[in-house]
């Protein structure tokens, strides 16, 4: 289905063509007509599926060009908000709308000045938006369309109290669009309380990883994870652009230090880094000057980089849905990708939860010649045992062997 069949105006069709879009992605094909109808919409889609265009294009079409805040987009991270702003600004160059971003970590006064000049679409992170509201620099009473992007991540990051305060400032009669990579019970409760008869667009079912990703599990002693990663990079030689996930900021910095001692160019991206440092790191990662980017889950949604060859779960995520978010960074736009997960004996319970969510066992692989210390290896056939435990509530016997 070409874009010109979705009901977009000539200006927006020209914007799409100018950006090089030829055919809509599934989320765009399904969501755009619904948004143009004025429906509340719930979209389940991961980053990289084209959901930004799915709400920016129809939202701008539905509001006049008058310099009054009509479209509000709330995003959990500065990086993701910037990406939305860049796309919306490119589209607005064809329509005449004014787009402003309100992000934390950068000076407030320029944002206040930009809002005084008039705005049709505001893209904001929750904390900075509340700052502007409290200073009477942003008036939300005129908002007609609210977009809550990455709703599950806003919950994970503890932003929902801020979002509730933002919702209290908005007109009750509005169109609300909510996008989330997963539809956890908490997200569904938000949908039920804040959306009216929403249409559901589901192109990335919760817990379903991209089939093009080669997933592998590497049981290893906790103390050998860095050594194993360096050895894998040397053995495979195809770690062109690698994204590594750790559980904490401290561990991210430690991994970077260890990789650099092994002559692997790497940097960390987490909340202790300034906005300028993060953007520089992303730019160096995109253009190939950095081979490895080490990040925490809090930062993962702001990493919009194509051609990531490998995702390495240096630490098994404690939230199983984060596993899906992490590995979804590779194998984008029809490409293939690889996701390696290092698991120590203490992380088996988290592995259990991940395999239950994706309804599959992650195959165990072994790096020949690596001097493994004593380690635990998951038993084969463990998924069937786990399903029985889940169904009947009983405790199953041990599943480890040395």
What's the arrangement of secondary structure elements?
Blueprint: H1 10-18, H2 26-36, E1 41-44, H3 51-62, E2 71-74, H4 78-95, E3 99-102, H5 109-116, E4 121-124, H6 126-134, E5 145-148, H7 151-156, H8 160-168, E6 175-180, H9 185-194, E7 199-202, E8 213-219, H10 225-236, E9 242-246, H11 249-261, E10 266-269, H12 275-286, E11 292-296, H13 297-300, E12 310-313, H14 320-327, E13 337-343, H15 348-358, E14 377-378, H16 382-392, E15 400-401
What do you see in this structure?
- This protein has 402 residues and is an alpha/beta fold.
- The chain folds into 2 domains: 3-202, Rossmann fold (3-Layer(aba) Sandwich), CATH 3.40.50; 213-401, Rossmann fold, CATH 3.40.50.300.
- The protein is built from 16 helices and 15 strands.
- Strands 3-4-2-5-6-1-7 form a 7-stranded parallel β-sheet, with helices on both faces. Strands 8-13-12-9-11-10 form a 6-stranded parallel β-sheet, with helices on both faces. Strands 14-15 form a two-stranded antiparallel ribbon.
- Residues 205-209 and 387-402 have low confidence and may be disordered.
Report the count of strand segments.
15
Task: Provide the spatial order of strands within the biggest beta sheet.
Answer: 3-4-2-5-6-1-7
Q: Which structural class is indicated by helix and strand composition?
A: alpha/beta
What is the CATH fold-level name of the largest domain?
A: Rossmann fold
Q: Could you report the average pLDDT, rounded to the nearest whole number? A: 84
**Low-confidence runs:** 205-209, 387-402
Strand content: 15-25%
Number of domains: 2
């Amino acid at each position: 289905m070409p874009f010109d069949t979705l009901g977009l105006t000539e200006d927006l069709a020209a914007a799409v063509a100018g950006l090089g879009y030829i055919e809509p992605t599934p989320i765009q094909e399904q969501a755009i007509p619904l948004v143009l109808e004025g429906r509340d919409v719930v979209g389940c889609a991961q980053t990289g599926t084209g959901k930004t265009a799915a709400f920016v294009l129809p939202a701008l079409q539905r509001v006049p060009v008058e310099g009054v805040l009509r479209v509000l987009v709330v995003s959990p991270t500065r990086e993701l908000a910037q990406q939305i702003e860049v796309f919306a600004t490119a589209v607005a160059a064809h329509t005449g709308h004014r787009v402003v971003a309100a992000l934390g970590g950068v000076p407030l006064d320029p944002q206040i000045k930009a809002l005084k000049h008039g705005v049709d679409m505001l893209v904001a992170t929750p904390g900075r938006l509340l700052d502007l509201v409290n200073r009477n620099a942003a008036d939300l009473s005129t908002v007609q369309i609210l977009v809550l992007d990455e709703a599950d991540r806003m919950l994970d990051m503890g932003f929902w109290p801020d979002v509730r305060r933002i919702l209290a400032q908005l007109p009750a009669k509005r169109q609300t669009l909510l996008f989330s990579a997963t539809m956890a019970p908490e997200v569904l409760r938000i949908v039920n309380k804040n959306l009216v008869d929403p249409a559901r667009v589901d192109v990335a079912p919760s817990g379903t990883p991209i089939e093009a990703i080669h997933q592998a599990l590497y049981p290893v002693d906790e103390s050998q994870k860095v050594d194993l990663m360096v050895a894998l990079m040397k053995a495979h030689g195809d770690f062109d652009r690698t994204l590594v996930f750790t559980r904490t900021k401290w561990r991210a910095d430690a991994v970077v230090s260890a990789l650099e001692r092994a002559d692997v160019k790497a940097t960390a991206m987490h909340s202790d880094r300034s906005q300028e440092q993060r953007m520089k790191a992303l730019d160096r990662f995109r253009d190939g000057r950095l081979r490895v980017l080490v990040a925490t889950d809090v930062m993962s949604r702001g990493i919009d980089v194509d051609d990531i060859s490998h995702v390495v779960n240096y630490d098994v995520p404690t939230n199983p849905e984060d596993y899906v978010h992490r590995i979804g960074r590779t194998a984008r736009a029809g490409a293939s990708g690889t996701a390696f997960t290092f698991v120590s004996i203490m992380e088996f319970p988290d592995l259990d939860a991940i395999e239950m969510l994706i309804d599959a066992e992650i195959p165990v692989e072994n790096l020949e010649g690596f001097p493994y210390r004593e380690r635990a290896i998951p038993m084969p056939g463990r998924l069937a045992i786990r399903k029985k435990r889940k169904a009947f509530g009983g405790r199953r016997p041990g599943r480890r062997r040395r």
